[in-house]
Amino acid sequence: AQSVSQHNHHVILSEAASLELGCNYSYGGTVNLFWYVQYPGQHLQLLLKYFSGDPLVKGIKGFEAEFIKSKFSFNLRKPSVQWSDTAEYFCAVNALFGGGLVFGAGTILRVKS
Amino acid sequence: KAGVTQTPRYLIKTRGQQVTLSCSPISGHRSVSWYQQTPGQGLQFLFEYFSETQRNKGNFPGRFSGRQFSNSRSEMNVSTLELGDSALYLCASSLGVGDLSYEQYFGPGTRLTVT
Predict the structure, then answer these.
(1) Interface contact flag, A100 B55, Cβ < 8 Å
(2) pLDDT truncated to tens, each residue of chain A (113 aa)?
(3) For residue B103, what are the β-bridge partners?
(4) Is A101 part of the contact surface with chain B (CB cutoff 8 Å)?
(5) Are B104 and B92 in contact (CB under 8 A)?
């Protein structure tokens, strides 16, 4: 069965610090990869996605992620975080042949102002 | 465009009862998926419906069921509720075809508490 691992459950950063959240998945076939964000009191929102093509994908709010097939990884990055980035971030994978999204456990990011 | 809507937003039920949750997808979306979110197990896929047919199913007991109507609206039902069914139930919709079938948009969820 597919699984998704997010390396850090809690991350605390100061404003303007750089962010990298790790995500690894365990599926050898072709996959679609996603990062979702859940801001306090809000519902899950799609941050960015990878289907094919350029392995460096850009999402909303200055976030980007890099798909490294050989490492089964899809790490999320942001060069300079803001207080408003405080949220929980979820990595998810979906195999092309179907099935729902398989989510990682989530990483809670707190940005100190 | 209006987002995914779920009703009710909050629900309290007693063990042994059954419950029905409703989801209206984004206009034009034909696929609806359901997820259960709990602190212990995280987000887990329940099932997916497309054109009124269940297309995929997660690893949940038969007490969990769903259906989809011709207007793409979906309901999920949980029978014989157990305390462990207390969770946030999320609905997500997608276009349902091609690569974009995997780009899912989530609703606010229904918070179910079983006492």
Answers:
(1) no
(2) 789 999 889 999 999 999 999 999 998 788 899 999 999 999 999 999 998 899 999 999 999 999 999 999 999 999 999 999 999 999 999 876 666 899 999 999 999 98
(3) none
(4) yes
(5) yes
